[in-house]
Amino acid sequence: xxxxxxxxxxxxxxxxxxxxxxxxxxxxxxxxxxxxxxxxxxxxxxxxxxxxxxxxxxxxxxxxxxxxxxxxxxxxxxxxxxxxxxxxxxxxxxxxxxxxxxxxxxxxxxxxxxxxxxxxxxxxxxxxxxxxxxxxxxxxxxxxxxxxxxxxxxxxxxxxxxxxxxxxxxxxxxxxxxxxxxxxxxxxxxxxxxxxxxxxxxxxxxxxxxxxxxxxxxxxxxxxxxxxxxxxxxxxxxxxxxxxxxxxxxxxxxxxxxxxxxxxxxxxxxxxxxxxxxxxx
Length: 281
Fold this sequence. Notes:
This protein is mostly beta strands. Helix content is about 5%, strand content about 45%. The protein has one helix and 21 strands. A hairpin with a 2-residue loop joins β19 and β20 (about 270). It starts with a helix and ends with a strand.
């Protein structure tokens, strides 16, 4: 349930929240099969109580409690559990706190670098974060370590700048290491960087009048785009002033005669990537 404290108190007269309350006015029916449970989620306006699930003896069930609070204020969480007969069943519940509650992870180009950022909601006995990178999403290698907060009940933000990313697609993940040496891996995120030696991308192709050309500018300054015909003659020259890094320009192809052409990009440091062919309709 994502119900607010105020709506829970208004509906029940208390701030307690949970599953399968004995008062059927809070939720009915009390129990449903785990695989077909309906009405098992509430929005902010819910009363804080959802139906319980029917369980099978001998199976283990995991209940994850997120202590989300807009104010970021810590609070005390008291557990109470009963069996299907309404009798206390504290021995059925084993509680533990996750070392790290990861709530955000992202990777994005930052000029010629890649920036990896992440945030945690809470931390308990956390030691460090190891940022790992892969070019194929299979074999990951560590590229940096960031010390963790250790103990925190409020949001913590982290970042690591990868100054030597791979050309093209870079896969990143976190190894979240606890103080006892145990670790868990985060989901994988992706950042795509363009290399100065890679082929520019162009669309649409074929083209009727205007086309978009994307490429990586090795230095800030003037760029010259040449359009040549099949025998290598220059039939069009267009000039642009661009910043260093990923760039995109719009080319006017309306004056070209129907046929096949090539696009070449030149910067002050030399050719940018390889020529790319296109067809003018």
